[in-house]
Structures are given as C-alpha cells and as structure tokens.
Design brief:
Spore Coat Polysaccharide Biosynthesis Protein SpsA, Chain A; two-stranded antiparallel ribbon; 11 helices; globular
Amino acid sequence: MLEEVERWLATRSWSAGERPLDLLLAAKRAAGPAGTVSVVLPARDEEATVGAIVAAVRRDLMAPGAALVDELVVVDSGSRDRTAEVAAAAGATVIARDDILPRLPALPGKGEVLWRSLLVTSGEIVCFVDADLREFDSRFVSGIVGPLLTEPGVQLVKAMYDRPLETGGTVVPAGGGRVTELVARPLLNLHWPRLAGFVQPLGGEYAARRSLLERLPFPVGYGVELGMLVDALALVGLDALGQVDVGVRHHRHQDEAALGRMAAAIYRTAHMRLARGHLVRPRLTQYDRAASGFVPSTHPVDTEERPPMLAVPEYLRHRAA
C-alpha cells in the first residue's frame, strides 16, 4: 500500500506553475465543450472576502484572450450581510440557495450548497472555491483545473497548500487544518490508506468533471469533502484523483466549538461509509463556562446526504436543455 501511495504522489501531484495559462488555454480549445469551466463559490456572510476573489477570477481567468473560466457563480447560503451585493458588484452571477430546486426544502450546510450548484452551472469541469479566502491567488483555480484539461484520465483534483494558523495576532506557519490532522487524516490512513497521499483532504478548493460529480452523493454538511474523496476513489480509482500545490491558503479560522462540530460531522460521514449502520446518538454535546459553572449545549451532527444528481429529474431536464 505504501508503494502505491508513493507512486501516486510521484505521478498525480503537481505544482500550479507546471501548467502556464497559455498551455491551459490551448488545451481548453482542443477539448471543445468538454473543456468548459464553471467556478462555484459557496458563500454565507463573506462580504469581506468574496468580492476580491470574484474580481481576481474575472481579471485573470475571464478576460478576453485569457478566458479559462466560462462562468462564475456565487451561491448565497442565506447571508445576513452584503455578500450577495458585493459578489454581484464584482461581476459574479449570484443565486440564492433556496431558489435552486425549490420543491426540496434546503438543509443547512456547505455540502447542500455545492450539490445544488450543479443545477445552476453548465461547465463540464466544475471548480469549487471557499469564499472566505484572503490574499486570493487565481492559481487556486487555474492550478486545479489544469490537470483536468491536460490529463484525460484525471477526474478530480484537490488543491494542496501551506495553511498557517493566524489567530490573536500570532501566526503558526503550519498550525491550520486542525480537524484535518486530528480527525480526517487518521481516518483516511486507518480506513482508506490509498488516500493517505492527500495533503489537504478537507480543503474547500477542488475541481472535478461533472460526469463524476453527478454520480456522487453529497453529505450536506462539513463531511462533503471527505465523503467525496472516499466515494470518488470507489467510483473511478486512485489514478483518476490528483492534487496541485497552489502555495499558501489564508482564511478565517473557526473557534474550537465549531471545529468540534465539524469533526463530528466528518466522523459521521466516515462512519456511514464504513458500515452504513446504526448511529446511536447523532448529536454532540459541548460545554461553555458561565457564572454558574459549565453549561452544556447540544448540537445535531449532520447526517443527511443528497443523492447523486443524476437521480434528480430537474437536473436531467437542465442537462437536456
């Protein structure tokens, strides 16, 4: 198994600089309709960062003569701030989550937004980017789209990067990704060791062929990235997966309670794929100190999943049109 992972790292791990934009544009032209690219930003209360991301993609990857990206869609997941207004002003197409597939009441969670985005995009390559990134570099898009345009056998590509922890005025160079190191990486190494080579298995920046995404179930919450990797491995095999080094990722870090809920959802996603069995208690109790002592608060753990998009009649009509 170790030899297989090492071989995969040598043949399916790249750097964004290996594929300059002119090479990608030539590959895109040669691919024809199969080379169309949609970029999706799931967003909730990200007015501080979403505009700069949209502006960078439009400037670097959608300008005349350099149009690697065909459409840029921000799916607003019930923002209470000016996320939608800022994204639209920067040039994105903004669509409210609840306006997509309205017959099906929306569930809270990032995976829900990603799943619904397939209904409002048309590219044969779909690239997801988190909307809370700071100091955004358009290589986060071109880097992970690149192998899908130049390597016919590749189906899904994750971004890898350094992830500093920036909190309280201090920076820990490799301190980010705490849930990755404490939960996701141990789970993958123990149960799906063929995926042990992924540097950032939970990262929100990845691109995939629509033909793969429409066959995958989508956990509605934070388990979506781990679930997608495990399910893609089962569907298309390790050599159809890759990763690209895009540099450094700066983003907003969540507090420990939120990370705990994320960890529980990821464990639940792994549990479902390991056993498809009965979970005794899909809830997580956490504690906050108050004047009277420690006060418990209990939160549901994301357990819902959306079916493969090919099972949704509206999607089939959308694709036929």
